[in-house]
UniProtKB/TrEMBL annotation:
Transmembrane segments: none
InterPro entries in UniProt: NTF2-like_dom_sf, SnoaL_5
Gene3D superfamilies in the cross-refs: 3.10.450.50
Domain (SnoaL-like) ranges: 1-117
One Pfam family it belongs to: SnoaL_5
Naturally occurring in which organism (per UniProt): Flagellimonas meridianipacifica
Protein name: SnoaL-like protein
Length: 117
């Protein structure tokens, strides 16, 4: 797959909410998640650990109010995607995310994702 094809597939899966398919199909097994702003998940290594991070975050969600995945920008080995999410939490509060996710590709697989918000 070209980097543009990876970007197109990534956006399609994200818009469908198929996050595990993203990890299983597009990520390298040793991929790296970087989110320095996060108290608990600043630096996560490996797809299985990234999936566990998502599952841990999901335990606090009562439901998704809205989700917007923008069009990808591809530049050499990187993909940037705007992402917005509003979720209802189990504690009755609401959480809103407005971020850019930057993915790095190497040899046809995503090797890192970094969240900016």
């Amino acid at each position: 797959m070209t980097n543009q094809e990876i970007a197109n597939r990534l956006v399609g899966l994200l818009r469908e909410g198929k996050f595990n398919d993203v990890y299983d199909e597009l990520f390298h097994p040793d991929a790296h998640h970087i989110e320095p702003q996060s108290e608990h998940f600043a630096n996560v290594k490996g797809v299985e650990a990234i999936k566990a991070k998502d599952a841990a975050m999901g335990e606090h969600l009562a439901g998704i109010e809205s989700m917007e995945v923008g069009d990808a920008i591809v530049a050499s080995r990187h993909i940037a995607i705007p992402y917005k999410l509003t979720a209802n939490l189990k504690d009755g509060n609401q959480m809103a995310l407005d971020e850019i996710i930057v993915y790095e590709i190497d040899n046809g697989k995503i090797v890192s994702e970094q969240f900016f918000y």
